[in-house]
Write a structure and sequence with these properties.
By secondary structure, the chain is of the alpha/beta class. It is about 45% helix and about 10% strand. The protein contains 30 helices and 17 strands. Strand 10, helix 11 and strand 11 form a beta-alpha-beta unit.
Amino acid sequence: MNIQALEVLKKYYGYTSFRKGQEDIINEIINKNDVLAIMPTGGGKSICYQVPSLILDGITIVISPLISLMKDQVDALKSMGVNAALINSSLNTSQFNDVIDGINNDEYKIIYIAPERLDSYEFVNIIRNKKLSQIAIDEAHCVSQWGHDFRSSYRKIGTFINSLEKRPIVTAFTATASLEVREDIIKLLNLYNPTLFITGFNRENLTININKSSGKNEYLLKYVENHKDESGIIYAATRKEVDKIYEGLLKRGYSVSRYHAGLSAEERKYNQEEFIKDNISIMVGTNAFGMGIDKPNIRYVIHYNMPQSIENYYQEIGRAGRDGEESECVLLFTPGDVHTQKYLIEIGTENPTRQNIHYKKLQQMVDLIYSNDCYRKSIIGYFGEEFNDNCGKCSNCLDDGEIIDKTLDAQKVISCIARMKRSFGATMVIDVLRGSKNKKVIQFGFNTLSTYGIMKDYSVDELKTFINTLISHGFIDSVEGTYPVLRLNEKSLDIIKGNIKVEFRESKVSKKLEVSNELYDVLRSIRYEIAKSEGIAPYMVFGDGTLRGMASVYPTTKEEMLTVSGVGEIKYEKYGQPFESAILRYLEENNIQKKDNTSNKVDKELDYIDVTTDKDLLDKLIEIRNDIASKERALPAMVIPKNTLKEISGRYPQNKEQLLDISGFGPVKVEKYGDVICPRIFI
């Protein structure tokens, strides 16, 4: 452990320990080695380059494309007593000159700059002669054409670094980077033998739900109604779609705002601030929304349209649950989404090489959607990290549909492609298999093939889904481009020979959604009113997890309140009384007798109650809980928290009355699940 780094962390940031991966990265930078760090959204990237900047001798330059984030970080550094400045398009000439004078007079320790400003003669001329300790590149994936957010201005960074008289340490940070992107970052930013850090792509608190039905509007409205008091983001592919969803929700009385490039800068800024302060519950936006947003209590992210790449998808769902609480990510997909994204690629990218990269990434996203495998495993594997077990928290893992042998149907599709001789797209193959009298089918003589019409029992959409699922599992290839074509591969031939069995799951998707806790909703209302009166974001009063803790164990005294994770002495003195009063009132109105039992308290220092866990029983209880969650289409942790199961496995409650003594088991849950849990404890 680097004592100096920890002292800086305590002195300036008020933290007593680093998050996962931060300390190793910081030590490497302090030892004057280049670094490439891939950290998930909310992983604390900024501390990794800010702490070394306060230890090393010289100026740190931070290159970032996010103007709003620059301002927030510079303001935060100034509030901690660190001299910092920014250079971007938000400065007028006078402000820019003031910063240049400040650099000339050695006033700053950290300077944030937009990549577009690196060709400023005044800046480069002065900074070239200054002692630089570090150049940190945020959102480093922007340098790569393989990245989902390529910016040509990032190509200036390597030239800028080479122009310096003495090269400083160079560090690069990003939340998403495939192998090709990593190689580009190292090469194009001229990193010297960088140490690679990957702190993990698995966000365990996120449930991933990909819905491939056509009823998007119906699903969205039901979901929003069931989560209307929670913070959520709805992403749509186009401004027109954003406006349509926004107007529809607004008309129905929902607390909603919108964000896209067609709105004025002032309106975008206002809408964003209203969302951050919880004055608005739902934000509908294009992918222009979310960069640099540090709102921890976003409980869901819904993609109304399929994103253009897995990188985009991972970055956008990463905005949910940054406080570590259980959150849900829903993707509503129809085949028309693919055409929309192809259109956006065509009008947004003129370079043919760049277009082909986008088409390839789009196909990878389509493959993910049609996969029958664990979605989390597929996403983590895409970024080059191993995830061996199924997650149990995605719609594929939770799907209780039947496994069906589809080998014969796969052989029909493959035989048809083989007999057509030339490469065609899926539409033509579907027409032949369904026996279409399409002019081109007749013109090519495909109506004479033995495979003509052999799958006419499939609808067009069903057959399209089946072919896409075959592609997703690598049984046939889709050659990307504006008009992708189907080709056979070695696996295709093995299927024809009977060497490979094709088995897919036929889904039975339930639409039942999570129902919120009544006391929790009361506490959220109190929190909102306090935050509104103080002009702060609600999560700054108490986080969602803290309110859930209160709603679970009913604390009504200072001593009990201080056992709830997230309630400290200062916060209790400022905010505790209204929450205590509300809980007392709730207990009285619902005739709930609170047990005076210390085992009902939540220990804020420990992950779970300190009891001896019966591992076999715990595994049995987790299995029971997961079965319940699957049937209710709810998050397992929202049915019964794991810590509660740990306590049950160590205390062996034999009836409902004894179950009431278990932390996290209130009267409602005892009544709902007691008859299932108690008999299983002694089986």
